[in-house]
Amino acid sequence: MMALVNRALVWFIPYLPKAFAARFAGRYVAGESVQEVLSVARDLNDRGFEVTLDILGEHVATSQEARDVTQAYVHLYGELAAGGIKGNISVKPTHLGLDLSAELCRDNFGQLLDAAQQHDNFLRIDMESSRQTDETLQLYRDLAARYRHVGPVLQAYLRRSSGDLAQLTGEPLNFRLCKGIYLEPADIAFNDPGEINRNFIALLRQGLEGGAYVAIATHDQRLISAALDLIKELEADQARLEFQVLYGVPMQGRLEQLLKAGHKVRVYVPFGEKWYDYGLRRLKENPAIAGYILKNIFHRAS
Ligand SMILES: Cc1cc2nc3c(=O)[nH]c(=O)nc-3n(C[C@H](O)[C@H](O)[C@H](O)COP(=O)(O)OP(=O)(O)OC[C@H]3O[C@@H](n4cnc5c(N)ncnc54)[C@H](O)[C@@H]3O)c2cc1C
Description:
Layout: H1 2-12, H2 18-25, H3 34-46, E1 50-55, H4 63-82, E2 87-91, H5 102-118, E3 123-125, H6 133-144, E4 150-151, E5 153-155, H7 161-168, E6 174-178, H8 193-209, E7 213-217, H9 221-234, E8 241-246, H10 254-260, E9 265-271, H11 275-285, H12 288-301
Helix pairs in contact: 1-12, 4-5, 5-6, 7-8, 8-9
The structure holds flavin-adenine dinucleotide (FAD).
Residues 126-127, 153, 155, 178-182, 217-220, 244-246, 249, 268, 289, 292, 296 line the site of flavin-adenine dinucleotide.
């Protein structure tokens, strides 16, 4: 029933005035300009959170577009440093041209990593759908051979992730662990929420025991509790991990508790002109997200 409601909502949204969509998208997106995102980042820093900034967009159509996005990110590293913001950057490979050419994409990431190095910063390579997994991990390996301040993402819903992690550990590895947001077929991905959560914790154990730095990215309160139990069991060093959430997702005071317990918490803050197209594409790919939006609209109204 809920799935039907979600699909109906996704169908309906393009017919709503853009200003209305902006009212609820605004909760999840930190504006369109660099100034706006830096102001949000500064507020989050003041409240004890670090940030990772993402310029909205993906699947660019031309090499020039990919180069322009690269320059925008290079500029953003400079702005973070100039503003004294505690934060790094997350980038989707198809936003830097992965669909067009692996070589172009690698060159663009190389420029970003030069900028990150210059400012003693870090670059996270977001993970997109399973169509990009192999190429994205190869991109990471190529870059990690030349730079230290770069890290990939592993998705707990993918059956392959444990094998991928086994191949990556041994190097100084810093990875983000998330459930995964794209709709994937059952032969390559777990669909059952319980199975995804069990794999998430198994991957967290594998990562921590393997000596990796792990960024634990979830809003799932029970999963956060299970992660904390594991951290305690393994006596994992707090300096080897952090928690991550998306900007705007209600967390009922949990983030402040994590900060109080001495954990680093980083907020993923997307911004940019492409917020509308990006939001709609996400919703069409995975209508279940519409349920969250619907819930948030009613939550805010009540
Ligand atoms: C920092 C960060 C980076 C990420 N990077 C990637 C990536 O590179 N690749 C990728 O595939 N996926 C990425 N994701 C998305 C992730 O894979 C999940 O799809 C998403 O976080 C929802 O899963 P969950 O772990 O929060 O658990 P869920 O079980 O989906 O959600 C738990 C609860 O959190 C709340 N919630 C979750 N999401 C939202 C939302 N958008 N709005 C409102 N409430 C919400 C709901 O109350 C829900 O009941 C990232 C997530 C985070 C937090």
